[in-house]
Amino acid sequence: MLRRKPTRLELKLDDIEEFESIRKDLESCKKQREDVDEVGAGDGEGAIGLSNDHKSREQMINDRIGYKPQPKPNNRSSQFGSFEF
Hints:
The chain has helices at 13-45, 50-65, 76-80. By secondary structure, the chain is mostly helical.
């Protein structure tokens, strides 16, 4: 394998400015999300409790991925088909 000298990276003023602008944009987006979450919590969603918190998180994940669970019927015909007992 060939060895070569490490490449020297130079940090330019333009790079620093670009980084700062992107960081400020990300921070402003994060603050907007937090504001939206606070408004949602003010509507009563935050007062649900810890037990329902898991279900709401699960529901948000299901909505995000497009999964719509169907409830399973609890009768014998659905479990065993049309067999007679």
